[in-house]
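Example with several molecule types.
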Amino acid sequence: MAKAFPTQEIGSLPKFSWRTKPLRGTTLYDEDIAIAKEWGERLEVPGRTDLYKILSKRADFSEKEKKAIVDFALLYAIRMGETAGAKLAKNEGLDLVWSGEQARTEMYETPVSSMKGFEFIGKVRSFDNKYWKMASIRDAPTYKENYHIDELSFTKKHAKRKIKVPVTDAITIMSWSDNHYYTAKWAKEKASPLKRSFNARREFTLDLAKIIRKVIRELIEREGVEEVQIDIPAATQFQSVDDIKLVAESFNETTKGLSATFSVHSCFPPKLGYAILFPHLLDMKKCERYSFEYGNRDTFKRGVDPESRIGFADLKLFKEYGYNKGLGVGVIHIHTDVLPTVSVVRDRVLYSAKVTDLDPASLYINPDCGLRTRSPEVAQKMLDLVVAGAEKARGGLGGN
Amino acid sequence: MTEIELSLTGSHARAETTIQATQDWERGRVDSASLSAAFREDCDELVDLQRKAGADYISDGQLTTAWQDFLRPITNGFGGLKKGAMVRWYNTNTFYYTPIVEGEISSDGQAIWKKLEHRFVKGGKLRVAVPDPLTFAELAEDRHYGEGEHKLLFAYAEALNAEVRTLEKKGVSYVQFSSPALVARFRKKPLSEEGLERLGEAIKVAKKGTSIRTGFHTYFGDASAYIPQIFDLIPTDDIGFDFTQTDADSLTPTTKGIIAGVSDARTTYLEGVEELRDHVQTIIDRTGSRRVTLAPSADLRYIPRVSADEKLRRLGALKQELTEGGS
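Resulting structure tokens for the full complex:
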């Protein structure tokens, strides 16, 4: 019998100072090295003493040493996933792991840096004091290099659990970029302003989808990856019906002719919630699982009733539209250090099962989104809660 | 002859040095005084740029942490509200914290005034953008008033009135009610005429007892469904449109001023002065308005600072051309 409420991470994990400083050319202090040692011992990272030796140099790292530091960051991240819940649950570890996107600058910057046609133009504020480095598209984008192959190869070799590679999708790259080239191209067309701007978005997106398909095809053919998570945080950004249809069209174009298990992650919709994506979301032909954020909007109250679990109300949409495949349920809000209890996470999991009426083996449990904005300590606690909450929910099946 | 004005209409992009300062501050590398100095310098440069571009009203750009999102001074400063979930701000990659209404909404009239850069009140015509009643009512989570959004709409308008009164008393010259909610409907139907009329009543409440110049600016969507009623039902001096979404051909004659969001705030693609001039000429021809304010289509916070400043300069060049050429 398949395991109920399997667990997964969404993608990113925070980067340790000993990972970021050497690549920025900043000198390491005692505290940075102490953190490497403390976490290395805690996670029992294989070969960790080699890392300590490299870091003891503190500055002027060679390219080879920098590469080794990043590789160790991948190992630390894999171990964080594989040991999650060690102190809270009987059985530690996530069922699906990744290496925390430690080899990537960021989920947008890495792919854009690896395509031709983009030019970075400056930072834009997303919320509070969080920014992204925006690139402007100045010519039709083309493939330059595969930006995930080395990361995948390393992760596959070292992970003991099943892996899932997250890949940023075309809609997100389009939405977070300055659409200079296509806006200029369509500005000359005789059409309404709305039609012109949509056409500029669509053409940009579909050009990107072809490049991303090539990247994924190589991951499948060269590294035999079995599971790919298509990351579409921007799925709910442009909200017209045509734009939502484009989200599905982009996914289908990206996965066309490819054979793997595909899932989709999205998060932080507008006030209307995920309803804005329905029913067109379900036109993604090869999607086996939709992993969305829900914890952000929930209460910290105990209970498996609609009021206590207000953040999970949108899950009912899947049932209403007759969806019967898999879901990933975000049970931890990732933009705060305030954490729910294990019991509340358990209730969130059980409520999700109740409201979707899906087989618990098809309900994956995860944090709302990637954990890169949190401290390593908090990120680890969040993963612990995912593992322990799901385990506790397994015990609660059949009677709440 | 149409009078041509120029103004920013909301939050501006932070300079790269300010961005660095905010990140350093978050990591404990600089203290709050250094961060404040960075914001001050940034704001001074932005105001200087507006003056050079020929702006008729000055915006402080809402650069500081008090304006982390457009609703934040309200969420933090009004009574009866608390901060809720993080939610996407319309069709952007930016986010706001939902104001949760858990009691009677109230204001001491200081919530917005306290967050402004006061030094620009004297000698500069300071323009302040605030969320209009519809935008607040639609984005807030009401746990107190119930019965649709009407009670909430007017409760917010009453509280906002205390703010507008203070702003006028302190010397602010222009209040803009920003209304993305009216046009960025996406999957929702446009507001009915009755709904638009109700919104007009709420704005009347927000500005009662004042004579300050006001504008009502719509952006992120197509406003053509509200033309011509919007000119009669919304009681502000100027009505604003995002002309990257609204077809200028849908405009009709009006005695109101027009805020002409002709420069696309969502891309660095820089429209030519000639292209913009033709666009503005269509607006003038269609409306016969006595006053057109040149503006970006929305806030300029959605592109990097260098590009945002370039957009403003281009609008300045447009104003000069239109003013010298005579419209």
